[in-house]
Design a protein that fits this description.
By secondary structure, this protein is α+β, with helices and mostly antiparallel strands. The chain has 11 helices and 19 strands. The protein folds into 2 domains: 274 residues, Beta-Lactamase (2-Layer Sandwich); 185 residues, Histidine kinase-like ATPase, C-terminal domain (Heat Shock Protein 90, 2-Layer Sandwich). Strands 1, 4, 5, 6, 7 and 8 form a 6-stranded antiparallel β-sheet that branches. The chain has a 5-stranded mixed β-sheet with strand order 14-16-17-19-18, covered by helices on one side. Strands 10-9-12-11 form a 4-stranded antiparallel β-sheet, with helices on one face. Helix 6 runs antiparallel to helix 7. This is histidine kinase.
């Protein structure tokens, strides 16, 4: 029962922790999705804002008859007064230069930039015009690296410019390396807005006003005002592939759930990938729940164990009391039986003693000795709690008075054989009579007399005891009267033992052979074992 309670409580605790972790994971995924949406919106908003600035600049440049460095910078400054281009590298003008006007363009640019400007790379024969970087605001040494670069010569830029011209609206390029980056070679992109002449129907492309962007700075500008948490961000151009990676930001060693969002950056498809950290450990709430739950489970286990142990002890106590009651009933019945047998033996002894007695003194003397023999054997049986009693113990008790005198030789030999209580009483009475007879007439009546008592097993259920006297007065068979002792042994003892007694009066002394039953200890030791069993076993 305690184990079952522990398992059930542990199961409930495990389900609770799993539910908390599942809820935390769903909340985490929702936060991840919300963050991806916020960053996507921020990126699109910044790109659209830049495209709007380019539209406005394009509208102003359309009104200019001639676009020079000074009026370009003035117009950009007026329009962009107090306006920041987050993540941008400024605003540039790229003029359309036909092949036959390249020399004049380079000559004019020499007045704008000391040292002159040359269009590079060289215009291929199959292309009628170039679109070089003409002006780039702010005018810095970094931005001047890009002056003169023919952007129409590079496929990613050319594709965006053609799309912008055809749609007459801003268009973003794919992943490029900005010329002003130099050796840094950081990925970037450009947004182009075409500028046309005002005349119609001969409306022609004059060039492009554009905004270059460092992709990493552009991503950082969006994350600066949005909660990025501990997520990782990767920005890809058109498709997720290592070679299309524009920018990334590491918030942590994230290798958990991923959310991807497609976004449109001024006509160009980008993909934002947001990855959360993979939590290898339980959340704080789960840990608190687990620890408190384990404490409660352990307390339940202890309480259940105590209650179960108390119930087991109560059942054992009831069982022990029932056993004791049964033992008392059995002992009462057995005691009644023993008392009846003892009284029957006493009555038989009294009757035989009275029949053989010639006067009151001889009657009292004979009765006293035999009752004492019964009492000695009773004491022996009481010490063994009326269990099995060894043959040697019964014989030693009855011969003890003669062994203490030191004038006789007593020799007892035999294996360990135990008798039932009734058989021990009968044997004790027989040995008493043989010893009394030997003390009056036989080997125990003279100094130096010898009595040898030996026993051995005949089978698993029978044992034989032999009494042999020697060294006493010679026995004359014809003159030996059959007294009370002889009659007691041959009648009462033989009847109680259930086997005949062989009593012989030889010349050298009395010899007696008794056959006694050997019973299984379980027949009479149950009481002793139960009495010795402690409470709770």
């Amino acid at each position: 029962m305690p184990l079952l309670i522990f398992l059930l409580a542990s199961l409930v605790l495990a389900i609770s922790v799993y539910a908390i972790e599942r809820s935390q994971e769903e909340s985490r995924h929702a936060e991840l999705d919300q963050t991806a949406m916020a960053i996507t919106t921020a990126l699109e908003r910044r790109a659209d804002a830049n495209a709007a600035y380019l539209r406005a600049d394009a509208a102003l440049l359309t009104t200019q008859a001639d676009i020079t460095g000074s009026n370009f910078r003035r117009l950009v400054a007026e329009l962009g007064l107090g306006i920041d281009f987050p993540g941008g590298d400024g605003i540039g003008w790229a003029q359309r230069v036909p092949r036959d006007e390249i020399a004049g363009f380079e000559k004019t640019m020499a007045h704008e930039y000391p040292g002159g400007v040359r269009i590079y790379p060289t215009l291929p024969p199959d292309r009628p015009y170039a679109i070089p970087v003409t002006f780039l605001h702010p005018d810095s040494s970094r931005n001047r690296r890009a002056i003169g670069f023919d952007m129409f010569s590079e496929p990613a830029r050319r594709t965006a410019m053609i799309a912008a011209e055809e749609n007459e609206r801003p268009f973003a390029s794919g992943k490029v390396i900005l010329m002003q980056e130099g050796e840094r070679a950081a990925p970037g992109f450009l947004i182009y807005m075409p500028v046309f002449t005002r005349e119609a129907p001969t409306r022609q492309l004059r060039g492009y006003i554009y905004a270059p962007f460092n992709a990493q700075d552009f991503l950082d500008s969006a994350l600066r005002f949005e909660s990025s948490g501990d997520f990782n961000f990767r920005l890809y151009d058109h498709a997720i592939a290592p070679e299309r990676l524009l920018a990334e930001m590491h918030g942590t060693n994230a290798d958990g759930a991923i959310v991807t969002r497609a976004l449109s950056i001024v006509g160009r498809r980008w993909i934002l990938e947001v990855r959360a950290a993979d939590r290898h450990a339980l959340s704080t709430q789960s840990l608190l729940t687990l620890l408190s739950g384990l404490l409660i489970v352990c307390l339940l286990l202890v309480v259940a164990r105590l209650l179960t142990q108390q119930a087991v002890e109560a059942r054992q106590a009831v069982s022990w009391l029932e056993q004791q009651s049964s033992i008392r009933a059995s002992l009462t019945r057995e005691l009644n039986h023993r008392v009846k047998n003892t009284l029957a033996n006493v009555l038989s002894i009294v009757a035989l003693t009275r029949r053989r007695a010639t006067d009151l003194d001889s009657f009292a003397e004979g009765l006293d000795g035999r009752i004492r023999a019964l009492s000695a054997t009773h004491d022996l049986l009481t010490q063994s709690e009326w269990g099995a009693t060894p043959i040697r113990a019964v014989i030693e008790v009855e011969l003890a008075p003669y062994a203490k005198a030191g004038e006789h030789h007593l020799n007892l030999s035999g294996p360990d054989v135990e008798l039932a209580p009734n058989d021990a009483l009968s044997l004790g009475l027989a040995i008493h009579e043989l010893a009394t007879n030997a003390a009056k007439y036989g080997a125990l009546s003279t100094a130096g007399g010898k009595v040898a008592v030996s026993w051995y097993r005949l089978s698993d259920t029978l044992a034989r005891i032999e009494w042999v006297e020697a060294g006493g007065p010679p026995v004359i068979q014809a003159e030996t009267p059959r007294g009370f002792g002889t009659e007691l042994i041959e009648k009462i003892v033989a009847h109680e033992l259930g086997n005949p007694v062989d009593l012989r009066f030889e010349l050298h002394g009395v010899e007696c052979t008794l056959t006694v039953p050997v019973r299984a200890p379980s027949d009479f030791e149950l009481r002793a074992r139960r009495a010795a069993r402690p409470l709770g076993e």
